[in-house]
């Protein structure tokens, strides 16, 4: 389960950063019916943009994404 600070930090993570550091998340983005994998704009988008653009439920999206264990990997690497 994500705590609020991790939740907010994840929303600010770049899609390209996540895909590069945790390649298995490509399946996640595809399963969420996004076009993030292979998108030229992935470099500029963060998860907040994805949730808004695709009108996804933010809480469910982040809970599902947290199963990929990126919250600890990326949050530590950005501090």
Main pleated sheet: none
Determine the number of helices (DSSP H or I, runs of at least 4 residues): 6
Question: What number of domains?
Answer: 1
The top-level CATH class is: Mainly Alpha
Measured between the Cα atoms of the first and last residue, the distance is 21 Å
Q: Over the alpha carbons, how many angstroms does the gyration radius reach?
A: 11 Å
The shape is globular
Overall pLDDT: 85
Structural category: mainly alpha
Strand percentage: under 5%
Which CATH architecture? Orthogonal Bundle
How many DSSP-defined strands? Answer: 0
Helicity, as a percent range: 55-70%
CATH domain topology = SP0561-like
Low-confidence stretches: none
Topology:
Elements: H1 4-11, H2 15-21, H3 25-31, H4 47-53, H5 58-66, H6 70-78
Care to give the gist of this entry?
This protein has 79 residues and is an all-alpha fold. The chain contains 6 helices and no strands.
How would you characterize the overall build of this protein?
The chain has one domain (4-78): SP0561-like (Orthogonal Bundle), CATH 1.10.3910. The mean pLDDT is 85. With 79 residues, the protein is mainly alpha-helical. The protein is built from 6 helices and no strands.
Keywords for this structure?
79 residues, mainly alpha, 0% strand, globular
